[in-house]
Design goal:
Shape: globular
Largest sheet: 4 strands, mixed
Helix content: 40-55%
CATH superfamily: Cytochrome P450
Radius of gyration: 22 Å
Structural class: alpha+beta
Number of helices: 19
Number of strands: 11
CATH class: Mainly Alpha
Strand content: 5-15%
Strand order of the largest sheet: 1-2-7-4
């Protein structure tokens, strides 16, 4: 189902149910060489009003195509959303080396989380833990180590004051982005700041800009670190007109805001679903014990862990952390859901509604990982946790690897129980991200495999 709203001279189309095949002419089936880079352009004014410095990242032109491909190469899965095979082959060796480094970062941060949990449950008794903050610390450290080679959470934090400022900024951004603003939906009211929210957001954007510029300048003075910022600075030397400081900061901000809270929230939902379905948790644990054994899960094991992958897919279907896909705008007239859609219409896709559409899914509100085991490859037009087509999230491969490694390690290394007899409350709170209203608290106890691993190897995090 689609609904077309008319607000003054601006049209909004909301896709809420049914297959998205009708979007194919403007979003799918295009080779990278043939793309109309103005088609389905994301709404720069809306993004800029919400987050400030993102506009340089979203305004793609033909001359900036390499910028998008570089991001996809660094952070995407092998398919890379339509990037040509020749491009993949040229960068294959560099990509492999970078992925090996990123795996080391992910592995060390997951080990840090395991040690933290082991510290409160190592005496053979169950201990209550609050997981939301721990998972956020994990994902934030992974992203920051990739971007700037820094850890801001947990032990071994060297830049204490810098870490404090960063945490403060991230907390304020989470609060600001969650606020609904009438001017975002009614352009006539954009100039009115009823609550002072936009002034606060502008101050915060400038604060973040100063922080990010400091990171860029620091890397400009130290080019030996193998980080994303240094890689972009190298590209800046070759193409300064494209890789400006604003573009680099925009990319960093996209990763921080899009890759930390979302992955952590998705893992929180997954653990809540598992504890509400102990038979699923038991089956996942049995698969890990059979396929991995008495060593810690590696990313090379992922292909064998079909049920774990199905759990992650089913969790993304039932609890998409971005329930409303970021808006798009077609540059030419088209027809969607029987509606004539003029050029310039703002297109919203309600992923949560599509994922729970009974015409597309059997028992859509039930948590059933088996649906992904039996269905094989799911139709891309009905499963869109990371968006669709050329504008899909380029970090989906990274997010899936982080979630699989983390959830697999937590299931493998700990026994988990609910705090009480009642099922975990799955009440949702939706802003830009769909949260659990109550942070997840669980009882955990280390399994013998974890004691053995730590006794064999005292890894330095």
């Amino acid at each position: 189902m689609a609904r077309l709203l008319h607000v003054k001279k601006t049209h909004r189309l909301i896709i809420e149910s049914g297959s998205l095949r009708e979007l194919q002419p403007i979003q799918f089936g295009l080779d990278i060489e043939d793309l109309d880079l103005d088609a389905v352009r994301r709404i720069a004014w809306l993004v800029k009003r919400r987050i400030g410095k993102l506009e340089p990242v979203q305004q793609f032109t033909h001359g900036r195509r390499l910028q998008y491909l570089a991001m996809a190469t660094l952070f995407s899965s092998p398919s890379m959303h339509g990037v040509s095979c020749s491009f993949n082959q040229v960068l294959a060796s560099e990509k492999k080396a970078r992925q090996d480094q990123l795996f080391s970062i992910r592995r060390k941060e997951v080990m840090a989380l395991l040690r933290r949990l082991h510290g409160v449950s190592k005496h053979g008794n169950y201990a209550k833990v609050e997981l939301r903050s721990m998972l956020f610390d994990l994902t934030c450290n992974i992203i920051m180590r990739m971007v700037a080679g820094k850890r801001y959470y947990g032990e071994d934090v060297k830049e204490i004051e810098e870490a404090r400022i960063f945490k403060e900024i991230m907390e304020e951004f989470a609060e600001c982005i969650a606020v609904r603003n009438l001017g975002d939906m009614i352009p006539l009211l954009q100039w009115i700041d009823f609550t002072g929210h936009l002034k606060k957001l502008d101050r915060l954007s400038k604060k973040m800009d100063v922080f990010l510029q400091g990171l860029v300048d620091e890397h400009r003075d130290d080019r030996d670190r193998n980080t994303m910022i240094n890689r972009f600075l190298a590209l800046q030397e070759e193409q300064p007109e494209y890789y400006t400081d604003e573009v680099i900061k925009g990319h960093v901000l996209v990763l921080l805001l899009g890759g930390t809270e979302t992955a952590a929230t998705s893992m929180e939902w997954a653990l809540a679903n598992l504890l509400n379905h102990p038979d699923v948790l038991k089956k996942a644990k049995a698969e890990l014990d059979a396929q991995v054994g008495d060593r810690l899960i590696e990313e090379s094991d992922f292909a064998k862990l079909h049920y774990l992958q199905s759990i992650i897919s089913e969790n993304l279907r039932l609890c998409p952390v971005t329930p409303l896909i970021p808006p798009h705008m077609p540059s030419s007239d088209c027809t969607i859901g029987g509606y004539h859609v003029p050029a310039g219409t703002i297109l919203f896709v309600n992923a949560r509604s599509l994922h729970r559409d009974p015409t597309l899914w059997d028992e859509p509100t039930s948590f059933k990982p088996e649906r992904f085991e039996s269905a094989g490859r799911v139709d891309a037009w009905k499963f869109i946790p990371f968006g669709m087509g050329r504008r899909a999230c380029p970090g989906d491969g990274l997010a899936n690897r982080v979630m699989t490694l983390t959830l697999g390690s937590l299931i493998q290394c700990f026994e988990w129980e609910r705090v009480g007899e009642n099922k975990i409350d799955m009440l949702e709170k939706t802003a830009m991200t769909m949260f659990k209203v109550e942070p997840l608290e669980l009882m955990c106890r280390a399994r013998p495999i974890l004691d053995m691993l730590f006794s064999l190897s005292d890894q330095k995090i």
